[in-house]
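Example 3.2
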Amino acid sequence: MSEPTTLTDVLIIGGGIAGVSTAFYLARHGQRVVLLERGEIASEASGVNAGSIGALGWGNMPDLQAYLTMGSLELFKQLQLDWGYDIAFRQSGALQAIHTETQYAFIRERALQLCANGYRVELLNMREARSIEPELNPKLLGCLHIPLRGQADPQLATRAFATAAERCGARIVTQCEVTALQQSQDGSYQVETFPETFHAGMLVLAAGAWCAPMGERLGLRIPIAPVRGQMWATEALAPRAFHTFSSAESTLDWHTDAGCDAETPPELTHRNGRRLTRHLYGRQTREGEFIFGGDRELVGYNTKPDAGGIEVNHGHASEVLPLLRELPIRRTWAGVMPFSLDGKPLIGQIPQRPNLYIVSGLASSGFGRGPMAGKLLADYIHTGHRPHVLSESDPARCVTRLDDAT
């Protein structure tokens, strides 16, 4: 007996935040949509991150970054406030800690430039910073306050978009790994899984860090590298901290030395096994855990946390919030993030293959930028017209055929 074949307009591979939002907005447009996820929804990077939602404002001349961050912020608001999904969303604002005089001079100049370009940030002295976040270390030199930023539970939010997509008619298939993938002469795609085969007019690669091996099945080189990020959590406490937190250390170091080459993405914490900088992000969740992370290492698809890196990160976080020094780490985990080699997202049509699209390369900010990335791609697929802002993320700039001599 032959396997059953399902026909659909659009087939999406990948059940992270970008994939499920693409499915939702395509389904709202009336497209027949099927999404395949080899595990469960939010089982990879979209479900194991810190839940930070970055936003600086639209600015005087909104670029792709503004669209992805501010657009996603609005979509998270809609998800909870207008559509009734509990995703633990809160527009909490963010604080970036400043540790040294060099960092202070750099952040002060950066804040002036951002404000001049229409973004909402403010440089606070420690008296001002501790008036809105009393647990901050008084020995810090100041904080950059970013009031528009927010936070949400990454698993709840990603699953909410999947549920919303299903309510609009999309089919979400989990525990469904792709075993074969090929394009027909008419430009459509046949995707085999067990026990079902799917035939789609258009195919969307939304498989995060696994887009590169997925592209190889189609004879394409998609320059996305798997970068491990790792996190740790304390036991649950009564509310003690209210913003999301970061540090100016990596911001300054990456500005000084991006640390990338032809085969290495920018803004990593390690290169060739050597630490370049300390990176920090985290928050106290609604349930009371403090969750923090930061290291970004190019170690393939390895999701085993590194104890040494966790210790460094815990020390860094304790410099910002001293209460963490005495709190033991209760659990650790890691995920694999999709970093493009040039540091820019890949959102759009892949020109080497008709009817093939991608939404990936969102790096460490995939959760906070994924909803708008999915909406922009869904609008593009539905109308056939690429939004001008997606010219910055055109896959044509970097995707090549595997058999190309160059």
